[in-house]
Predict the 3D structure of the following.
Amino acid sequence: MSRRSFGTLPDGSAIDLYVITNGSVEMSAMTYGGIIVSLRVPDREGRPGDVVLGHETLEGYLPNPPYLGAIVGRSANRIAHGRFLLDGNSYQLATNDGPHHLHGGNRGFDQHVWTALPINDADDVGVRFSRISPAGEEHYPGTLQVSVTYLVSSTNMIRIRYEAAADAPTIVNLSQHSYFNLGGESSPDVLEHQLTIHGDGYTPVDSSLIPTGEIAPVAGTRFDFRKAAAIGERLSHPDEQLRRGRGYDHNFVLDGSRGTLAPAAELLDPSSGRSLVVATTEPGLQFYSGQLLDGRVSGAYGRVLGPYAGVCLETQHFPDAPNNPAFPSTALRPGGIYRSTTTWQFKS
């Protein structure tokens, strides 16, 4: 593992980039936003390629409206109108997605500098990012101590561990917002990628992408990815839910038991032979097909970040969970510990 300077923020904060490798997989992550800048993985011929969208310089992430590679929180995904009740108290969060709260607000975890601690043990090499989110940040209650650890194993697995504790009742829902394109840096889109999701249900959304509260079966719908299907093929069919999202931007209800690491999804690029297996302790997976990338920004390697240039597989609790008692709770109270693990297993 190595560390180098990745630039300086306008406020003078120095940003470091950590390059973590096991000799086959190489991940680069920086202290700004805990952002995964690049992730190089071999294809079926053993040739390395970058399988996440990113930028070559810090300036490319200022700003970063697509949340490329970032840690998102304090509460990932959407909260309707930024409002929720907790223990009889009403809270109004910042609204940054029309009338709603998205990925932590106007300045979520993706826009803060994290403290880094390198990790190097017998089985894994990585870095632990941590920060203190003060009470009132984006109007969240309670001070939150939070850490996110990235570990690269000898078996080409990336393990992501989240942990948090609070001094007052609050809500927490952390996720990682990398955009995957397993074809590597020369691949223009993910439309031919084959996707499998281990979930019998999903949460339909209204016209502003807030869950209706229903958990609907995927059987017989364009949301049935229980068997592998090409992402582009599914997008070509009319569907009211797909129209509302202008593509996929929906939470899938995973089959695994909450708190137990279980398979969530598989992504395969037939061209390169690379595949990704996602497992998680989380109850949900947000599948976002990258349709809102508009091509006005170029990423690393001069690649145009156009629609479907990458796909997000965000392990999480359900969107708007604080306002839906039937959804798994995101509440965290003093004395409790928020723990979550997600793994990315790469194969070729």
Q: What stands out?
A: The chain has a mean pLDDT of 97. Residues 221 and 239 are 9 Å apart (CA to CA). The longest helix spans residues 240-245. The helical segments are 231-235, 240-245.
